[in-house]
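General statements about sequence and structure are easier to judge against a single worked case. No coordinates are needed to read the tokens, only the vocabulary itself. The sequence in question and its structure tokens are set out directly beneath this paragraph.
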Amino acid sequence: MSAPHTPAPQDAPEGDHPPLTASEKSYLPSIVKGIGITLQRFFKPNFTVQYPEVGPYDYAAQDRAIGEVNPRHRGEHILVKDEQGREKCVACLLCMAACPALCIHIEPEPAPWDDRERRPKVFEIDMLRCIYCGYCEEACPCDAIRLTPKLYTPTTSRTERVYDKERLLENNPEAQVPQRPRK
């Protein structure tokens, strides 16, 4: 039989740390240092952008602006209008099928115009569920839905984050320019 294994004695020194003083043991220097940092930050100018009153890309606040908008930024959705001011959407439901978050809800109805069969009676996007992937934009055959560089609009309730057809049509007027060439 072999003897049980006993661990080797720990002869390593505790370290070269000097013993703590009474004030260090009570954390008073650390508390005073933390209050000093807090007071310094309190009396310095505000580095926070007061969004949405001041946009993060507003150059009137030169010291706080964060630069140019990334051209690949995917912000809020819009429904694009055609030349007659009607929605371009033909209610094909491809964007609803392509959405991985299942945040798009469309109910089609017959269109009163001769150039298309259907239009959306209900078109809603739940922006709280949306992951801003852009699949809806890629799936749309008629360039009817688009993600714009507009930053997210702050809201105070969950129901305000469900965008209906009217809000999507009027969301970002400067993004209503044609992007794809006509076929």
